[in-house]
Amino acid sequence: MMYPMISGLDELNQANALLEECRRELQAERIPFGEALETGAMIEIPSAVLTADSLAKRVKFLSIGTNDLIQYSLAVDRLNEKIAHLYEPTHPAIVRLIKATVEAGRRNGIWVGVCGEMAGDPALVPLLLGLDIDELSAAFSVVPQVKFLIRRLKLSEARQLADFALNCESGSEILARSQALARRIAPGLFENQN
């Protein structure tokens, strides 16, 4: 089970306490339930990234919700035509927020996944894997393309891309480098794109 929109430790503690209360009620009423249920927290806002170490100590996984993380970090609504062009998944700040979350997970022995449009974009998959993401949650329709690309990707190349991105000051350069790698290893996925 994944808690959405966690902003910090107090909210996570409240959610865990509520879950524990529900478990006790089910036990008292002898209603069977999945006692091994793993709980995780969505990382969708900058405050969650900044408190990810504390959160990671109290959950079994973190899942980065890239759509909201980008929107709230860059103060841009991707659905607003007037400012949607400012929505930039490869903005250096976003890359660093993703990496910081992964590092918090590693320090605390839990896995970190990504959901949202980034996870299903074949051009960005090499970057995410290079940042050491453990799991991608993508729309059913793009899973075959993502799997195709992953099977052809060398982890060393993905890590080189991530190193470049973490030291780059330009989101457009990061995007271009990620697209170039994806196109080189899986050109068939991009044949109908300009």
Using only C-alpha atoms, the radius of gyration works out to 18 Å
Please, what is the CATH homologous superfamily?
Phosphoenolpyruvate-binding domains
Name the poorly predicted regions. Answer: none
Strand order of the largest sheet: 1-2-3-4-5
The top level CATH class name:
Alpha Beta
Strand residue content:
5-15%
Q: Describe the biggest sheet?
A: 5 strands, parallel
Helix content: 40-55%
- CA distance, first residue to last residue: 40 Å
Residue-averaged pLDDT: 95
Sum up the overall morphology in one term: globular
Tally of individual domains: 1
Any idea of the CATH topology?
A: TIM Barrel
SSE sequence, one letter per element: EHEHHEHHEHEHHH
What count of helical segments does DSSP give? 9
Computed structural class: alpha/beta
User: Judging by the overall fold, what is the CATH architecture?
Assistant: Alpha-Beta Barrel
Keywords:
194 residues, alpha/beta, five-stranded parallel sheet, globular
Plain-language structure description:
- By secondary structure, the chain is an alpha/beta fold.
- The chain has one domain (2-138, 149-188): Alpha-Beta Barrel (TIM Barrel).
- Helices cover 51% and strands 10% of the residues.
- The protein has 9 helices and 5 strands.
- Strands 1-2-3-4-5 form a 5-stranded parallel β-sheet.
- Strand 1, helix 1 and strand 2 (40-43) form a beta-alpha-beta unit.
